[in-house]
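So, can you check this one?
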Amino acid sequence: MSQTTAIQTAAPSRYPGSSQEGIEAHYDLGNEFFRLWIGPDMIYSCALFEGDEDLASAQVRKLDHHIEAAGAPGASSVLEIGCGWGALMRRLVTHWRVKRVVGLTLSPAQASWIHQSPVPGVEVRVENWRDHRAEKPYDAVISVAAFEAFAHVGMEPADKLQAYRDFFDFCHSVLVDGGRLSIQTIAYVKPRTYVPPLISEIFPESELPLTWEPIAAAEEKFELLALRNDSDHYYRTLRQWDKNLATCRNEAVSLVGEAKVLDFQKYLRTSAFGFKRNQICLLRMSFAKR
């Protein structure tokens, strides 16, 4: 087992969904910028609250939810697709006794952040999941807030669904028999004919699934074990991020500029409004390999 956090980089390739350039346009704005308002643990996805607990505690609860839903505690190897800044990988190794975790990201900045604080058993690769070749099957696969980048605006419905099927086919191919998969994604509640320009600018080349599409795409290869809609949890997460950004606004402006900070404030508020009005929802799903 490696004693350092390894980084492996693959050449960029073009597939349905967000390209590496599209991911970099958002996530590579600067690690310090994101740390200011998403928190020192660098967890940039919907938390899982219980009672009036704070955001940091709710984020750890979210990590543990997916780890347990994927049957990952004590596993020999786990694959995380869309590993962000590495919080879930660190949790797997340091708290849940997982021996080896491989995380895939298309953001060099995120990979660099993980590399700065190496953890034995953690390996990060700047690599599209479609290009990943597993040395041997993984015991579990987890993907939090990456599914939104697997399709792009303007795709024909059949092509979009096929892109999602490709993802589930891949997960099926790299999982041990009976292995489990846990996913978290934002989804449209009903078909969307208009995407606000700001959202397209913040997340270029990305498109949300409809609520039924991940389930339909998975059904031939996976059994759905659990599904929950936590829209209220994302509303609460976004409102807290918005407050955090307002508190450190001057420092954020010094890092990325006034215009970019204003764009992010609008994006956080627009997204919160979407969850509040039931235009979009937050799905947490777990599956077992057939």
About this structure: The longest strand covers residues 175-188. Residues 1-13 have pLDDT under 50 and may be disordered. The longest helix spans residues 258-276. The two ends are 30 Å apart (CA to CA).
